[in-house]
User: What shape does this take?
Amino acid sequence: MNAAAQAIDTRTQILDIAEQLARQRGFGGFSYRDISQPLGIKNAAIHYHFPTKADLGVALLTRYGEILSSLTSEFMKHGGCALDQLEGFIAFYGDKICSNQGTCLIATLASEFATVPAAMQEAGKTLAMDIRTWMTKVLDVGREQGEFNFDGDPGDKALLILTSMQGASQLARMAGPATMDAAVRQIRADLGIGSELVRKWDRTGAIA
Amino acid sequence: MNAAAQAIDTRTQILDIAEQLARQRGFGGFSYRDISQPLGIKNAAIHYHFPTKADLGVALLTRYGEILSSLTSEFMKHGGCALDQLEGFIAFYGDKICSNQGTCLIATLASEFATVPAAMQEAGKTLAMDIRTWMTKVLDVGREQGEFNFDGDPGDKALLILTSMQGASQLARMAGPATMDAAVRQIRADLGIGSELVRKWDRTGAIA
DNA sequence: GTCTATAACGTGATAGAC
DNA sequence: GTCTATCACGTTATAGAC
Assistant: This one.
């Protein structure tokens, strides 16, 4: 454990705590003190790693983008099972994010967009576009492969799914975790997953 | 224009500005100064009408609840055309709220829930429950009356529609107003409105 | 009802010692 | 890399004059 390793570790710990706080309380809902105190360091130490709060926010979004990218890049390049992609995303939301009243960082950013530094706005826009592009491909390919059944444009459908997950994760804070379950149940229903229609469609390979 | 009338008027003006600010920037995203300045009064004058910011927030939600109630109570009591109710809600969101990057107050509250006074949390919970109850009835009755076509539980479907509108109105800040259009398009598609299937269904009076 | 004046506090941020 | 010390600022809120 030399000095350099310790430095990196502190930086990561700061990001970890900041991300949890941002998800639960929003970017404007926590202060440097909320990070420094549990880490047992002083505010000035955080400013060393992230000179301004905007720097911290951008770093948060950048790291989040890399995680998302690692989960989606394989499918974006070579395709695969679309249902697995969708269910992976749902699990990502349900298990990691929605537990303990958090939301996706993109959802957090979207709800605070007007009050956030410009650098974060830019970083967020790219992220939101990327995830919608990915979900669109999942739905498009999935419908073609007979895994999903829905009407309308895959881009529209992607947006509907993403926004409802986003909204449900926020509403779950008010109405409890069953909110997420209900939203996911209906998302599946509206994709024909598990329904009579789609089972039939799976067997025949085309819409009856 | 006597003293009493002027008093009421100021109070309303405060609420109007506060509501607009809350929708665009969130409840924690504006200060008393943002209200007093455009009104040409001082902060202390606002404290006279609303002693604490929590009082202002609860008043905002109470008034919002009354407006919503006036739009939904007739249908809740005597039923009616479900499609009109849905389209009215969509217009409410699209025209009044989403324009100029605002959101529904319930969406605002949900996204800030953890950082908001307890009194506002309580007021918001009731509001969110009421609107979901209404939307559930709209969907249930509408499906029964042959206006909508969808699988699954009306309560789940209501949640999906409400949360996607909520999420889309937030995402529209990042991705532009076309975001709302796309979400609404898919909501209609997933209800069978305007689709081949439902036109057929309308003609025959039963699902083919 | 609205004003002036002020209090009490938390915040992001910086300078310089170690 | 982390510390102490400090700054400048905006915020909600209150007291008391008019």
Observations:
- Confidence is low (pLDDT under 50) at residues 197-208 of chain B.
- Residues 31-33, 43-44, 47, 51-53 of chain B lie near DNA strand D (CB under 10 Å from a C1').
- Chain B has ten helices and no strands.
